[in-house]
């Protein structure tokens, strides 16, 4: 079993001041790698290395930095199958989804390679003669990026690629339980030509990261924080950043609604709900939380949805036909089982031959994995959800989907917004007015029509509002505002001091003129 430490200032470390943690294949229970964890001091050391390297990296012309990003994309593309297989092995994601996740890295690099030639400012007309005004994008400085393990390569790329392109140095803290993936992705980035210290990868647990980040901020070593994870931790990150007058980029949890109108294509809606709710075993921030179905089609939708979930193959993630594989790890399974405690007597359960962990004593009909070695969970549909149910307002992060009924459009909107999250939402309808009215009133930062709540493209803004984030956006040109600061410059060549708002030219008019 390989030991993997942190990568600081261009070198892999072999010390483990924060202890050790074994990563395990959640489908088979076999060890994958052992993480040599950092302590807070090592996190600060990485931030200091980034600070020392950042100015030199920012001096590299932006088109050349874009070329490095392009080379990262080509390296990832050349290693696509191997990287996807590692994702499947270390977190249990089905191979088709793992390949899609790696493709997201490639697409992100392809998009931002060109942005190295498009970090545009503007020339602005002045109110005075012989004076020019300009704006420039400048790097933020050192960015500390903390990401979760459910998308261990795609989501980090959303931060790392634009941050590096814009001339920042990065300290990346991946999920500590994915050391092999973190090692592979770091190697691919560095081998593309990044100078030492520009990208540093620190393996550390949550409390250590918090302590290290606080110390690095106090020392003036971090200028921007990016965080993807739970809403609860995001609140603490926001508080920490606020004490240093910084605005973090926060991409947090979701309780994503999928509204089914009476004119919807029910088979299409079921397909969307199946992938939204149970892809990646429901372990996505964009996973479907509650299907909100019009009373006229509720029973038929539930019948078809139940049949689709019962008929889905669950098990070995290396199979091409599985809907989902294991939970990421035992701790995620335990959290999911706790959320099953939100089921109340007025709810009805559908979707499988049991609930909770799949075992020999609690089997899943048609299961295609090793239940004793892996950490697998039954898919669960919870029908009869009401707007005031705790389950309607809690991110359950696992293979569980609620189903609620509504009569009037206002009820659907109340269910879609009432939980306070605002990440992703979907509506199934054949009537344009329903789609546009839903878009206007839903709180989500991302809206789909006749498509799933999950799915992102590299050139479209990604992010949420409310409990799902602070309004920051990733992907596309919009993320550039997270990793650059606008700088304005005025250049006066009049040869005399011109004072704005005081020495401006006036033009006389005749305000009393009237047409005869």
Give a quick set of tags describing it:
single chain; 516 residues; alpha/beta; seven-stranded mixed beta sheet; five-stranded parallel beta sheet; 14 helices; 24 strands; 20% strand; globular
Explained architecture:
The protein has 516 residues and is α/β, with parallel strands linked by helices. Helices cover 35% and strands 20% of the residues. The chain is built from 14 helices and 24 strands. It has helices at 40-58, 62-78, 80-91, 95-115, 154-165, 179-190, 206-218, 231-242, 266-278, 295-311, 330-339, 409-417, 432-441, 480-483; strands spanning 2-4, 7-8, 11-12, 20-24, 31-36, 123-125, 131-139, 142-146, 169-173, 199-201, 224-228, 249-251, 256-260, 288-294, 313-314, 322-324, 348-350, 380-383, 400-406, 421-422, 424-428, 446-449, 465-466, 484-492. The protein has a seven-stranded mixed beta sheet with strand order 17-18-19-14-13-21-22, sandwiched between helices. A five-stranded parallel beta sheet has the order 10-9-8-11-12, sandwiched between helices. Strands 1-5-4 form a three-stranded mixed beta sheet, covered by helices on one side. Helix 2 packs across helix 6 (179-190), helix 3 packs antiparallel against helix 6 (179-190) and helix 9 (266-278) crosses helix 10 (295-311). The relative contact order is 0.14. Keywords: NAD, Oxidoreductase.
């Amino acid at each position: 079993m390989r030991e993997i430490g942190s990568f600081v200032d261009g070198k892999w470390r072999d010390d483990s001041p924060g202890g050790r943690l074994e990563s395990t294949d959640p489908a088979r229970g076999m060890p994958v790698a052992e993480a040599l964890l950092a302590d807070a001091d090592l996190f600060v050391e990485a931030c200091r290395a980034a600070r020392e390297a950042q100015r030199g990296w920012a001096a590299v012309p932006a088109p050349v930095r874009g070329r490095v990003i392009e080379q990262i994309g080509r390296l990832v593309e050349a290693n696509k199958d191997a990287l996807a297989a590692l994702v499947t092995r270390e977190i249990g994601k089905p191979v088709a989804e793992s390949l899609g996740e790696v493709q997201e890295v490639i697409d992100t690099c392809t998009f931002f390679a060109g942005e190295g030639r498009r970090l545009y400012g503007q020339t602005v007309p002045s109110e005075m003669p012989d004076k020019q005004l300009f704006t420039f994008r400048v790097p933020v400085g050192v960015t500390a990026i903390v990401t979760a393990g459910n998308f261990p390569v795609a989501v980090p790329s959303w931060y790392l690629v634009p941050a590096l392109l814009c001339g920042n140095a990065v300290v990346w803290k991946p999920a500590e339980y994915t050391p092999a993936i973190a090692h592979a992705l770091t190697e691919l980035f560095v081998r593309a030509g990044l100078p030492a210290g520009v990208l540093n990868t620190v393996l550390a647990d949550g409390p250590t990261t918090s302590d290290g980040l606080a110390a690095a901020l106090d020392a003036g070593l971090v200028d921007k924080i990016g965080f993807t994870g739970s809403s609860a931790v995001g609140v603490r990150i926001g508080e920490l950043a606020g004490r240093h007058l910084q605005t973090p980029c926060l991409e947090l949890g979701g309780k994503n609604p999928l509204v089914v109108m009476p004119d919807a294509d029910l088979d299409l809606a079921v397909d969307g709900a199946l992938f939204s709710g149970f892809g990646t075993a429901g372990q996505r921030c964009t996973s479907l939380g509650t299907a909100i179905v019009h009373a006229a089609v509720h029973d038929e939708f539930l019948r078809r949805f139940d049949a689709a979930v019962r008929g889905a193959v669950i098990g070995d993630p290396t199979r091409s036909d599985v809907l989902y594989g294991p939970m990421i790890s035992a701790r995620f399974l335990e959290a999911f089982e706790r959320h099953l405690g939100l089921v109340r007597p007025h709810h009805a359960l559908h979707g499988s031959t049991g609930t909770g962990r799949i075992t020999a004593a609690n089997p899943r009909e048609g299961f295609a994995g090793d239940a004793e070695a892996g950490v697998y969970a039954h898919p669960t549909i919870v029908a009869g959800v009401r707007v005031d149910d705790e389950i309607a307002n809690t991110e359950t992060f696992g293979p569980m989907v609620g189903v609620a009924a509504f009569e009037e459009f206002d009820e659907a909107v109340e269910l879609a917004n009432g939980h306070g999250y605002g990440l992703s939402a979907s509506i199934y309808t054949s009537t344009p007015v329903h789609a546009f009215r839903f878009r206007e009133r839903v709180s989500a930062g991302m809206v789909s029509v006749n498509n799933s709540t999950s799915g992102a493209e590299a050139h479209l803004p990604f992010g949420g509002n409310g409990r799902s984030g602070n309004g920051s956006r990733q992907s596309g040109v919009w993320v550039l505002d997270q990793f650059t600061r606008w700088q304005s410059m005025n250049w006066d060549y009049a040869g005399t001091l011109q004072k704005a708002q005081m020495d401006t030219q006036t033009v006389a008019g005749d305000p009393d003129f009237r047409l005869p």
